[in-house]
């Protein structure tokens, strides 16, 4: 008979000693099956006694206690490269203004929820490290504002160099053109009409003026005709043709029924392979395995690694069904991860 309260107590004590840990590590500490340990950890999370990370290590989440959040930094090497970059940037700057970050960093900041936390200031979104106290945030904002130039200084600096209005317009090219203009001389100083007879009219004065021509380079928008959905036309979707199951796959399904395994979802089937989620009853209730059956002469450690990796990314334990032989390395690999990887040789008709 399993004493649930005692096992849960042992799990909490193991987390106090180890800090953030994987289910398989906790299972080794308390000398229990990894599948049962995962079930107990889920219950402890529901009871708010244990926390679970968003970060994943090899397809599994980390479990830890209140106050151990800082220790998750030891596992940042398992982050996606862009997420690791966002974490290091946030750790260095302490505060990041979202609008000033490149799109990939903005997305990464949202993903590293174990380390980052958003807040608003003057309708702008900022990010900080979760462990950074609010008092430090306020101090950082005060320092930032004190470094900004005063309004008068901003006004003076803006008057030093004003861009021409034409240069501020987008998609406009400015051309300068020289034009000759004839200007007649003014005869204001001539008092008598008689003097005009002997007066020699001077040559016209030539002036250069600049004419600014704006050339809009923006092309006119393309006109896109709306798509007309004719209600009288019936759209017939062709049903997807499902390939028939091979004799090997049918025999595997029959074998699973014989050993009281229930197929709950078929993932993939080929001529000599079958992948599905199967369920079996246990003393703790039904347990689901990612199950793969292979009609292969030799099962090697690469076959087992691939299956276990796919299973842990769900996360679920893995079950390999085979009708051939195991290599020495595959046997060693199966023994190493026996708590989450099961093997069974099939006896097919």
Main β sheet profile: 5 strands, mixed
Could you please say which CATH topology of the domain at 247-345 applies here? Answer: Trna Endonuclease, Chain: A, domain 1
Kindly estimate the percentage of residues that lie in beta strands according to DSSP.
Answer: 25-35%
Strand order of the largest sheet: 8-9-10-12-14
What gap, in angstroms, lies between the N and C termini? 38 Å
State the shape: elongated
Helix content: 25-40%
CATH architecture assignment name of the domain at 247-345: 3-Layer(aba) Sandwich
Quickly list its features.
Arc Repressor Mutant, subunit A, Trna Endonuclease, Chain: A, domain 1, five-stranded mixed beta sheet, three-stranded antiparallel beta sheet, 12 helices, 35% helix
Written overview of the protein:
Helix 4 crosses helix 5 (103-111) and helix 11 runs parallel beside helix 12. The chain has helices at residues 4-18, 23-30, 34-46, 81-93, 103-111, 134-147, 151-160, 165-168, 195-198, 247-258, 301-312, 328-336, and strands spanning 51-57, 60-64, 95-97, 116-121, 124-129, 172-183, 205-216, 262-269, 273-280, 287-294, 298-299, 318-322, 325-326, 341-345. It has 349 residues and is α/β, with parallel strands linked by helices. Among the domains are: 4-68, Winged helix-like DNA-binding domain superfamily/Winged helix DNA-binding domain (Arc Repressor Mutant, subunit A, Orthogonal Bundle), CATH 1.10.10.10; 79-132, Arc Repressor Mutant, subunit A, CATH 1.10.10; 247-345, 3-Layer(aba) Sandwich (Trna Endonuclease, Chain: A, domain 1). The chain is built from 12 helices and 14 strands. The model is unreliable at 160-184, 186-201, 205-210 and 215-227 (pLDDT under 50). Strands 8-9-10-12-14 form a 5-stranded mixed beta sheet, sandwiched between helices. Strands 3-5-4 form a 3-stranded antiparallel beta sheet, with helices on one face. A two-stranded antiparallel sheet has the order 1-2. The radius of gyration is 38 Å and the shape is elongated. Strand 9 and strand 10 form a beta hairpin.
């Amino acid at each position: 008979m399993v004493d649930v309260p005692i096992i849960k107590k042992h799990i909490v004590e193991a987390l106090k000693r180890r800090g953030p840990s994987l289910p398989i590590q906790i299972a080794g500490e308390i000398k229990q099956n990894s599948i049962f340990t995962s079930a107990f950890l889920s219950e402890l999370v529901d009871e708010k006694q244990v926390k679970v990370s968003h970060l994943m290590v090899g397809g599994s989440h980390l479990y830890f206690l209140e106050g151990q959040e800082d220790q998750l930094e030891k596992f940042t090497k398992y982050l996606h490269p862009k997420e690791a970059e966002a974490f290091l940037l946030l750790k260095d700057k302490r505060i990041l203004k979202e609008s000033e970050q490149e799109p990939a960093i903005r997305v990464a900041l949202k993903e590293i929820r174990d380390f980052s936390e958003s807040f608003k200031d003057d309708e702008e979104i900022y990010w900080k490290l979760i462990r950074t106290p609010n008092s430090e945030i306020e101090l950082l904002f005060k320092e930032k504002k004190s470094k900004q130039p005063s309004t008068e200084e901003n006004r003076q600096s803006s008057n030093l160099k004003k861009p021409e209005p034409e240069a501020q317009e987008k998609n406009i090219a400015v051309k300068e053109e020289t034009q000759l203009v004839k200007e007649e001389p003014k005869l204001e100083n001539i008092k008598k009409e008689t003097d005009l007879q002997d007066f020699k009219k001077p040559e016209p004065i030539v002036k250069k003026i600049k004419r600014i021509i704006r050339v809009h380079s923006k092309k006119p928008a393309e006109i896109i005709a709306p798509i007309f959905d004719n209600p009288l036309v019936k759209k017939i979707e062709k049903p997807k043709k499902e390939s028939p199951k091979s004799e090997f796959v049918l025999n595997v399904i029959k074998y699973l029924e014989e050993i009281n395994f229930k197929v709950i979802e078929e993932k993939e089937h080929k001529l000599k392979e079958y992948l599905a989620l199967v369920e079996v009853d246990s003393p703790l209730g039904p347990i689901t395995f990612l199950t793969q059956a292979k009609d292969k002469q030799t099962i090697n450690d690469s076959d087992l690694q691939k299956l276990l990796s796919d299973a842990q990314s769900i996360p679920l334990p893995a079950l390999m069904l085979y009708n051939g032989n195991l290599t020495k390395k595959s046997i060693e690999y199966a023994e190493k991860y026996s708590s989450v990887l099961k093997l069974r040789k099939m006896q097919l008709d």
